[in-house]
Fold each of these.
Amino acid sequence: MKYSLIYPNKKGFCDPDIASKLAIKAEEAGFSTFLIWDHYGMPEGPDTVDAWCMLSYVAARTSKIQIGTCVTPIPFRPPAQLAKIVSTVDILSKGRTILGVGAGWHQPEFDAYSVWDSTSVRVDKTIEGVELIDKLWTNETVEHRGQYFVSKKAELEPKPVAQPRPPMWFGVKGPRMMKLAAQYGSAWIPTMISPEEYKEGIQRFSELKQELGKSPDVHGAIQIYEPPQTTDEALRDINSYAEAGCQEYGIVWSYPESEGVKRVEWIANDIMPAF
């Protein structure tokens, strides 16, 4: 089992020194991934930082741990601009960057900073946006005129360090988004899903990849919103998802600041050796 530290981008967690301290400790402890929520507002309030700016700060202070978002709402930003942003962070991190992919769910942040559409349109925009991002990462010159986005003679240089592209992790469940995940995704990372639902979802992800002529071997991750408090609780939960096919257990690090680093040590010393 691998482990992700998922940093909650919300009030009380906007200090880059706290984020980088946890990322450094997680890297030292053997965590595989440091992910951050990508939001410009949360139900708890407007206090957030730009996730990609925070990741560039973390990239400068780490050297091995993968870094990325969990997840980026693709319709929120112009996808061509997002492709450049992610590529830049991948260069700064020397090829360690993950683009988490979702369609967005929190209407107030879209109303304030972007455009809120129906679920169907947001999914349409996500599909077209991911296709455009992939083109920009893998082609010298891109001409794109779609239903929602246009790029004329776009040349994204320098290319990302990760080749052929930075990995995309999909935090999705619906059928259209699962098909998109099968086409472009390196991993599936849902949240608020039972082990039984997880087993069905990861099997479907594998089947969809196989239907596209891709390898059915998939990387299954999970975002655990409520962090475990005891060793026994953590071991039971991790084991239940491992039996369902999960390979990377991601904990939303909502522990108080005073406990944050100690909790990393707890996972490393008491949990990791069991798996």
Amino acid sequence: MVLPDNIHFERNFFYIDCYLCYSNVGHDVEIHLLLLSMTITLVAAALTVPAGFGLATMLTPVVLFWLPPHEAIAVVAIIHGAHNAWKLKLLRLSVDFGAVKRYGWALVVGAVIGALLHSYIPSDPLLLVVGLALVILPILSATERWTNFRLPESEDRIGGFGSGFFGGLTGHQGALRAMFLQRRLPDKVSYAATASVLALAVDITRIPIYIIFEGSAILDEYVLILALVISAVVGVNLGKVWLTKWKQSRIRAGILIAIVASGLAYIVEGMISLEIV
């Protein structure tokens, strides 16, 4: 497809300057992209209810189509927070508050530090960091399943801090948290409910920091944010149905593969932008 001149790309990101979409062709492209973004968000939100993680990972490439990395991570955080808040509303009776307490303060501290660093790291290195996180964390999660290695519950603070830190820095918190949480909570409904509380804690912590540093750029995207929030909430309701009908292991495996593939693409993009290759 040949894009019109009023749509341009910045640093090889699919970054669309919507302020320049004044022609009929540009407007049509923008509407179609928004509808596609909403569809992907709805499906991703549904899949990640039984999986317990992966929404930010699947949404980040979508929002990067519209925005550069810092703003994209901040916008995804808002959608992620709305998704987890609604998921918690639906599954609140199944939350394991003992697990929440074990992560507690370490999760919040990690999110604060990560979000502050996020605001100071340039876009190209940040993309590379995101890519590395997306490759390494799912591999660690999968390795635990294969080796049956079980981290002691006393180390949950490490998992909480690491999950919060990577959530604040790159927006991707779930894979590391799953390493610590999944074996603690074998019941899939309890796992999904508790994961939503922990994820929401990270979101509530990091979003105000993002707004302080990226406020105007984030608020300018209110139409995109509102559209994707609505899609994510609808997706949660669909995902609740899938939670009881689908095998969690198959969904998690598919999401892990998609995460690693996205991470490799980000690594290549980041290395090209930094002229490493």
